[in-house]
Amino acid sequence: MRLHIAALTAVLLLSGCAGSSKVMVGQARPAIDPAQVRIYTVVPAGSQEIAQIEASSAIGFGTQGQTDSAVARLKAEAAALGANGVVLMGVGASGSSGGGVSVGGGSWGSSSYGGVGIGIPTQQKKAVGMAIWVPPGAVPAEVPMPAPAVEPDTPAKPL
After folding, report:
1. Which keywords appear in this protein's UniProt record, sorted alphabetically (predicted)?
2. How many Å apart are CA 132 and CA 22, to the nearest integer?
């Protein structure tokens, strides 16, 4: 019975708090479906900034699923503001030294029992971006790739 209580407590602690926040920098638009929100690494030409947004995953063990969850929450927050794009500024983790799960002890008559304590290291993934509205037909800005280095005394090879 005590192990069941400890396991249930651990699950409740690990489900943690997930959320999002925003700082408005432009005008919101009517909400759209989050599936229509694209993720960008650079700002497309002609886009309009709506809000700086931040989202976090539930507390867990730092999995790819947590990263995906934080980005999905970022897209949902953007969609609620009518943004059809998010310029992803970064994804990171914030950890804890360990959540605690404890079961107490006591005595009954001449018998006594002890408790159990477990420390579980957990973390939460956070994603930060700029919610933007990208006009139809806009082309994302290209990130220039550096030209390959050619040795000065090495002749070029024909293709």
Report:
1. Signal
2. 13
pLDDT score for 55: 92
Domains and CATH numbers, the chain: 2-100+118-133 (3.30.110.70)
Answer with the residue of higher pLDDT: 4 or 74.
74
Q: Where are the alpha helices (DSSP H) in 16-96?
A: 64-80
Identify whether the C-beta of residue 46 lies closer than 8 Å to the C-beta of residue 138: yes
Q: By CB neighbour count within 10 A (0-12 exposed, 13-18 middle, 19+ buried), where does 153 fall? A: exposed
Give the closest residue to 102 by CA, choosing from 86, 118, 89: 118
Would you give the distance in Å from CA 90 to the centre of its chain?
Answer: 9
Contact 55, 70 (CB under 8 A): yes
Q: Position of tokens 């280095």?
A: 149
pTM beyond 0.85, yes or no:
no
Lowest-pLDDT range of 54-58, 71-75, 101-105, 133-137: 101-105
